[in-house]
């Protein structure tokens, strides 16, 4: 993945160069190693570990193979540590440059695969899920930040390089998992090489909403947590109301705000997707998976 890998500069900034933009457009993703430095990562972990709100609102999804993954989702960034990360220039600002326009926070989630029984996610595109929410264009992306190390043994992401150029693939439910049509995925894999995305804690993968990706089960003795932030382009405001927000101005902050933030976790303004809200939304199963 060397031709798609970058690092923040000495000032802890992500410089979106012409080569980086070309790599994103060609491959459908870029990797920023050490997107969060060690201090920022430690602060993120402090905000998430032993967090009762996250555990109480965690949604368990059975993968059909006697394993499960858990996730907690919220709609707005808020003013705590996770909010500062999702509003920071090196995260949100980078997305704006990659998508070539203003973005807003579509939702965030903590993805949790526990040791031994953490379940897989089927091959899918994020836009395959979000399409039903009526953002009419695939001007959307996700930033996957590794909280723990991600490797083949604990279910790291697998991607089909360049598959975002294939357009939206039909998605269907198989049990509780919704995935892309596998006949089509198998065809695409012959043209777009599969790559395992192994990440160290603090690394960030920026990827296009049509990039096909999958993650296997966690068969290891260690957990695999990841913090994911989804963005939509401001010009791509969904036509219809749904449980994720329509265009809401994102007030970006300097990268220094992450370490300067004195609030580890605050649910005020985040709009957690609670169990009750999920039950009220017929589309929730489709839209929170990743």
From TrEMBL:
InterPro entries: Phytyl_CoA_dOase-like (IPR008775). Pfam families: PhyH. Its cofactor is Fe cation. This is Phytanoyl-CoA dioxygenase. It comes from Patella caerulea.
